[in-house]
Amino acid sequence: MPKMPAPPIADDLLAEVDGGLRLLASRERATGRITFPPRAGDDDRFEPAMLPAEGRLWSWTVQRFRPKSPPYAGPEAFEPYAVGYVELDGALIVESRLAGANFDALRIGMAMRLVPLPFPLAGGGVRTSFAFAPIGEAQP
Q: Which domain holds residue 23?
């Protein structure tokens, strides 16, 4: 499992566990319902939880054109990217970028694994966000 190359983009979002990356969440004490991103640490109704690092692709789409500016403030040279929902067994469904995926090979139900995603900051520097990547599939 990959490690974080830089500090996480937000506090209490990602953790390195046993040499791998995990998403942090909250579990409602009364119902067991899991929420992501995690709730504020001062809310006694919730306890910390970790989400599984692997799941299955539930649905996806490909962003093929540069969004309008504003709000888009990214580079002029736009590259298409995939966004999907990944079902994490026993937990919930997470929306995420899909990294290292051949768009034509994406299939509902395909195995996915959590990976770090470098996130460049406007003022320079990099933080770590997250994505899911296909497990055992040919990469582009």
A: 14-134
